């Protein structure tokens, strides 16, 4: 399949996944937040909690699968995965805004992920990460389709991993500092997924840590594209 067709179908799939994700969240908010979503979160029954965990895992598996199907080699598969993930994430928020009028602004707090502890942050932060992922993915796919050895070298890979880990610290540290617990301990004991979140309200997002992680990821992209441009010269 040509690059343009692959780009279209992966984007189309990811947008549809974004709608599906937003639909599930809309149902959950109608059930648990009839007066509007806000912190602290409402505890869910144990059976719903287990389904919610597996739903998150299934979402990642589906996005990973489309990357494996679309890519012609290992580096392309990774690139299509992060591209699909980013498009899905952006359109998830677009559809929530269309149907719920939420978020009220890009600085509205949201719970982003649950594994292994809650990730929280202003909505604009995952959008920034998603745009960066698209930039990186498109660059990798572009150079790979030009016939270059588009793999990431150890320096680029190390910077990408380091930047990602630092960004994750920014998303998770407020909960860890306030609560210091893993959600799934409650589920194993027959409790609710959001028991520990019933009195948790985000207080602080560490912007310097977030921007440090973002800068390191962009540095990895810079080194990568610089090397690919040099490799592509006659």
Please specify the SSE layout and strand pairing.
Blueprint: H1 3-32, H2 46-70, H3 74-100, E1 109-113, E2 119-122, H4 124-145, H5 154-178, H6 184-188, H7 207-232
Antiparallel strand pairs: 1-2
Walk me through the structure.
It contains 7 helices and 2 strands; from the N terminus they run αααββαααα. It is mainly alpha-helical. It has one domain (3-232). It has a two-stranded antiparallel sheet. The longest helix has 30 residues, at 3-32. The chain starts with a helix and ends with a helix.
Concise synopsis of the structure shown:
This protein has 234 residues and is mainly alpha-helical. It has 7 helices and 2 strands, in the order H-H-H-E-E-H-H-H-H.
What labels describe this entry?
68% helix; mainly alpha; 2 strands; two-stranded antiparallel sheet; 234 residues; single chain
Total DSSP E strands: 2
Which class of secondary structure composition applies to the elements? mainly alpha
Q: What's the number of domains?
A: 1
Alpha-carbon Rg, integer: 19 Å
Query: Helix and strand succession?
Result: HHHEEHHHH
Helix percent reads 55-70%
Which range does the strand content fall in? Answer: under 5%
Low-pLDDT regions: none
Count of DSSP helices?
Answer: 7
Biggest β-sheet: count, sense, barrel?
2 strands, antiparallel
Average residue-wise pLDDT: 88
Give the termini separation: 27 Å
**Overall 3D shape:** globular
Strand order, largest beta sheet: 1-2
